[in-house]
């Protein structure tokens, strides 16, 4: 995973392209070439011609474009953040170590000072998860899932009036119960289905995150119940549900 770079990730799906796609090979290749050198401000324009193409190849490129446009052009920050999942939670009184990663994995390029700006960041995180999941690359789904939760918690913290440019783990923990349980539960089940059914060869961080998702789903059937359990697990990994 350390060798990945979002500017080349789309090439994985491109090289595996087979059969008839909505976009031509030339269009996909042009988008890839554009992303290889595009600054953040131009990344989305590189994939504008792929807007109606929902194939894995095109979705992989669009996934890369979203992260590049948000200022995440390399994998270094993701690797460092994901490694924090392997440590203990650093919140006062304890919490899931996933909170450590969520503190670094979030979008805030639209700003954080207004409700409209925070809504835009949340919208981008939702789009990233939806698009990246279509790429059918497990790591894309995992990282975009964490960004979705991290952005939601961060925007809730900013809405509560935190001081500074980055919430602390304690400030994120304080907002967990304010998350929408049904939405979180849907994210949990979607992420587990796409990224956790086979973790052979996956990183320790991926395995730990998948185990956490699975523990929130065990014995529960509705998105709201699963989301409520996931919130408990984030606050206290040893908590039982319901």
Structural overview:
This protein has 242 residues and is mainly α. The chain folds into 2 domains: 1-74, no CATH class; 76-242, no CATH class. Helix content is 59%, strand content 0%. It contains 12 helices and no strands. Helix 1 packs antiparallel against helix 2, helix 4 (56-69) runs antiparallel to helix 7 and helix 7 runs antiparallel to helix 8 (138-159). The model is unreliable at 1-21 (pLDDT under 50).
Keywords:
242 residues, mainly alpha, 59% helix
Topology:
Elements: H1 6-15, H2 25-37, H3 43-46, H4 56-69, H5 76-83, H6 98-102, H7 115-134, H8 138-159, H9 169-173, H10 181-195, H11 204-217, H12 223-235
Helix pairs in contact: 1-2, 1-4, 2-4, 4-7, 7-8, 8-10, 10-11, 10-12, 11-12
Spans with pLDDT under 50 lasting ≥5 residues?
1-21
The structure class reads: mainly alpha
Rg from Cα: 18 Å
Count of all domains = 2
End-to-end C-alpha gap: 35 Å
User: What is the chain-wise order of helices and strands?
Assistant: HHHHHHHHHHHH
The share of residues in helices is 55-70%
Q: What shape does the CA trace take?
A: globular
Strand share of the residues?
under 5%
H/I helix tally: 12
Total strand segments: 0
In round numbers, the mean pLDDT is 87
Q: Describe the biggest sheet?
A: none
